[in-house]
Write a structure and sequence with these properties.
It contains eight helices and five strands; from the N terminus they run αββαααααββαβα. By secondary structure, it is mainly α. A three-stranded antiparallel beta sheet has the order 2-1-5. A two-stranded antiparallel ribbon has the order 3-4. The N terminus and C terminus are likely disordered.
């Protein structure tokens, strides 16, 4: 796992939440100083004569103030601008705004559940626990975008399907929506929505990439041994897992098989691997472009959320 970042040429890893400012070209201050000095010397020595004074000009009309109270949603959004570069791969505004759109309702839900919001009208700009909800959403969306991008890159290195360009996403989205429309026309069962939006399909394809990457890594570098499964069993033998269903809404205690524990351990290893990779990956962020995406707060969201049931502790399987 420690060798992963070398695949993308990361030689000086830093934490992704640090902002590495892009290098900018230096201006020519020395040249300007030299030019001004030469002009003054020629003027004093008489080589250059002062121009005659100009006739007074009428005062220009006052400029009309630029309106600043225009609705944020009406301002143009440049979707192809680069928000960040993640291990050399670009993250553009379009992709980042999908993460903002998906995450904002979760931020609202979590903060309202924990705190008494005194001014709901100014919710996004009111500091809560040392940061505003917008700042929390901005960083949370960036964190998810970084993890998604690293998963895509890892899948691509292993020959697994990963949609990393907008053109490819649109091509596949068109085919998928045509397939769904045809199944709906034939009255065939269709899991999920009858038609995907771009953002919804982006997260759908990413979930497929995650599942495939987890499966392949679980069979290779993240494989779990029989000894690890038994050790987990010994340390969790007194715990119970509760599962809920339509027939048992309150839940019932069930046994957990070796395979379920193995999958849980693989997922735990996978998350630790991805966390470590995020820590080592160089991420360069354009904060001006990042902050400009605050306009999404005034636009209607295209995502809905349901609170995930809390994962209960695990009951031992039968040996």
């Amino acid at each position: 796992m420690l060798g992963w970042p070398k695949i993308w040429g990361v030689t000086d890893p830093i934490r992704h939440n640090r902002r590495e400012k892009p290098r900018r070209a230096r201006n020519g201050r020395a040249g300007c100083f030299y030019g001004v000095s030469l002009a003054l010397f020629l003027l004093v020595s008489g080589c250059v004569t002062s121009p005659p004074p100009k006739a007074p000009q009428p005062a220009p009309e006052a400029e009309k103030p630029t309106p600043t109270n225009a609705p944020a949603a009406s301002l143009p959004v440049q979707l192809d601008l680069r928000v960040a570069t993640i291990a050399g791969e670009p993250l553009n505004v379009r992709e980042y705004r999908w993460h903002l759109d998906r995450g904002r309702s979760m931020v609202v839900r979590d903060l309202i559940a924990k705190y008494d919001i005194p001014d709901p009208a100014n919710f996004w700009t009111t500091p809560i626990d040392g940061e505003t909800p917008w700042e929390r959403l901005r960083e949370q969306a960036l964190d998810f975008a970084i993890r998604f991008k690293l998963e895509q890159m890892a899948a691509r290195e292993r020959g697994l399907p990963a949609v990393m360009s907008y053109a490819e996403l649109k091509r596949l989205l068109t085919l998928e929506n045509q397939r769904r429309a045809e199944r709906a026309r034939q009255n065939k069962p269709l899991p999920g929505p009858s038609r995907f939006s771009e953002g919804e399909y982006y997260f759908y394809t990413q979930s497929q990439t995650h599942i495939e990457l987890l499966r392949v890594m679980g069979e290779t570098e993240l494989a779990v041994t029989e000894e690890e499964v038994l050790d987990y069993y010994e340390s969790h033998k007194n715990r119970v897992v509760v599962r809920r269903s339509q027939s048992s809404p309150r839940g019932e205690a069930v046994d957990v098989t070796k395979e379920e524990i193995r999958n849980q351990l693989i997922e735990s290893k996978y998350n630790a691997w991805l966390d470590e990779l995020c820590e080592k990956t160089v991420v360069v962020v354009d904060d001006l472009v990042l902050d400009a995406q605050k306009t999404i707060l005034t636009a209607p969201s295209s995502f809905t959320h349901r609170r995930e049931p809390e994962r209960a502790p695990v009951r031992p399987f039968n040996k």
